[in-house]
Amino acid sequence: MKKITALLFALCATVTHAELQTLDNDALQAINGQAGADLSLMLNLNQTSNGIFDNGSGGVCENVEFCHIGLAINKRFVQADTTKPSGWAENSDSGNKLWLVFKGVQGTLNIQKMGLDGADLKYLDKSNTEIIKPAIQLSFSAAQPILIRNFGFNALSIEQDNFTSSTTTQGSS
């Protein structure tokens, strides 16, 4: 009797009903949501528990090439050009993407509160047509600042991809 009761209870507990409906693009654009998220994040980058750079034998940064952070700046490309002394010409639409690379990074970053919200990004393309794209909006509070401790790097360089990228009116490809 107990087994039958447990089985009936389990079957009743798993019955669900949802009124899920498909929405087209117009219906989705008409919806305004106001729910964001508050995040906190602590990054201990390549350190031991006592805050020392972990590049010793067996450490996470014994091979420093594994301890890099690269930042790609928007629309910064170069293309091969033999007429230039450097062999490269600047371009804002396509080519090899340039990166700002921090090597041998270590330290602690404590982001106590970061607001994550959605926003509409409006801009004009080359033909002066307004384009609206969804974007992420990050916010920070002065009451809960970002704490940076013992943060540093061994070297800084500008490097480029070994493949070609390009941008279009719709973004990067």
UniProtKB/TrEMBL annotation:
Top-rank taxon: Bacteria
Pfam families attached to this UniProt entry: DUF6160
Parts of the chain that traverse the membrane: none
Extent of the signal sequence: 1-18
Protein name: DUF6160 domain-containing protein
Annotated DUF6160 domain residues: 2-56
Keywords assigned: Signal
Origin species: Acinetobacter baumannii
